[in-house]
C-alpha cells in the first residue's frame, strides 16, 4: 500500500466533518449505467447531442421521446453497493458526515445515509407538471399522463436549461464550508455547477479524489487513481 493511499485512508478515518461528493462511478457497481462511457446511456442513443433528451425543451416539445428515454434511467433492481454502505456506516460513526450526490437513483438513501443532498434531484420524486400533485414513481413508469387532471408527469430531476433547487445549493455550500475532509468519489468532476462546489470549501480542508480516471482541480488535492470499491473496502 502506497504512503499516499494510506494517508488518504487515515485522513478519512480521522475526519470530524466528512463530506463525500459522489458521481456515477459510485452507482455503476450496483448495475446503474453511467452516461458517457462506451456502455453509457448517452452513448447508446447514437445522438450527437444526447443531452437534448434530458432537456426542458425536449420535455415540452417531445414528451414521448423524453418519457421513453427517462424510463431507461430507472433501475429498481439496483441495490446499494459496498461504497454506499460504507458511507452510511461512516455517518453513524461520525454524525457530521454528509453526502452531496449528482446521482438521481436514491441508492445513498437506500443504504441508510440520512444526511444527503440530492444535488440533481431524484427519479423517485414524481409530480404532475399541471396540478403539481405528487405521484408514485411506479405509476409514472406505467403512464406519463396524470390520471387525476390529465397533466404530464415528470420526475423532479434537474433538466438541462433548468435551474437548481436553491436549497440544494445552499445546503451544499454550508456543508462544505464546515468540512475538514472532502472526498470526491466516482466522478470526473466536470459537470457544472456541481464541480464548482469545491470553491466553497474551507481553506484548511483536505481534498481527496478517488476515481479511475484523472481529475483536475484548481485546489490542492490528493489523487487516488483507483476503483472506488477497492478503495472503500479498506476504510
TrEMBL record:
Record carries keyword 4Fe-4S: no
This protein's record includes keyword Manganese: no
Binding residues for Zn(2+): 128, 131, 146, 149
EC number in record: 2.3.1.286
Broad class of enzyme this protein falls into: transferase
Stretches assigned to the Deacetylase sirtuin-type domain: 1-235
GO molecular function: histone deacetylase activity, NAD-dependent; metal ion binding; NAD+ binding
Keywords: Metal-binding, NAD, Transferase, Zinc
Active site (record annotation): 120 (proton acceptor)
PANTHER family registered for this protein in UniProt: NAD-DEPENDENT PROTEIN DEACYLASE (PTHR11085:SF4), NAD-DEPENDENT PROTEIN DEACYLASE SIRTUIN-5, MITOCHONDRIAL-RELATED (PTHR11085)
Protein name: protein acetyllysine N-acetyltransferase
Amino acid at each position: 500500500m502506497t504512503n499516499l493511499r494510506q494517508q488518504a485512508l487515515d485522513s478519512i478515518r480521522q475526519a470530524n466533518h466528512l463530506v463525500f461528493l459522489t458521481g456515477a462511478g459510485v452507482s455503476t457497481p450496483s448495475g446503474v449505467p453511467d452516461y458517457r462511457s462506451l456502455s453509457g446511456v448517452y452513448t447508446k442513443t447514437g445522438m450527437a447531442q444526447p443531452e437534448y433528451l434530458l432537456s426542458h425543451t425536449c420535455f415540452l416539445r417531445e414528451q414521448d421521446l423524453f418519457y421513453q428515454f427517462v424510463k431507461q434511467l430507472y433501475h429498481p433492481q439496483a441495490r446499494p453497493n459496498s461504497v454506499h454502505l460504507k458511507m452510511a456506516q461512516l455517518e453513524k460513526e461520525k454524525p457530521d458526515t454528509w453526502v452531496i450526490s449528482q446521482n438521481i437513483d436514491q441508492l445513498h438513501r437506500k443504504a441508510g445515509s440520512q444526511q444527503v443532498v440530492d444535488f440533481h434531484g431524484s427519479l423517485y420524486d414524481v409530480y404532475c407538471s399541471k396540478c403539481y400533485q405528487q405521484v408514485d414513481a411506479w405509476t409514472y413508469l406505467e403512464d406519463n399522463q396524470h390520471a387525476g387532471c390529465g397533466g404530464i408527469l415528470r420526475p423532479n430531476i434537474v433538466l438541462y436549461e433548468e435551474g437548481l433547487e436553491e436549497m440544494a445549493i445552499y445546503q451544499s455550500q454550508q456543508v462544505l464550508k464546515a468540512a475538514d475532509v472532502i472526498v470526491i468519489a466516482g466522478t470526473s468532476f466536470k459537470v457544472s455547477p456541481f464541480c464548482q462546489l469545491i470553491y466553497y470549501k474551507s481553506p484548511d480542508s483536505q481534498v481527496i479524489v478517488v476515481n479511475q480516471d484523472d481529475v483536475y482541480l484548481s485546489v490542492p488535492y490528493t489523487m487516488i487513481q483507483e476503483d472506488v470499491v477497492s478503495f472503500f473496502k479498506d476504510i
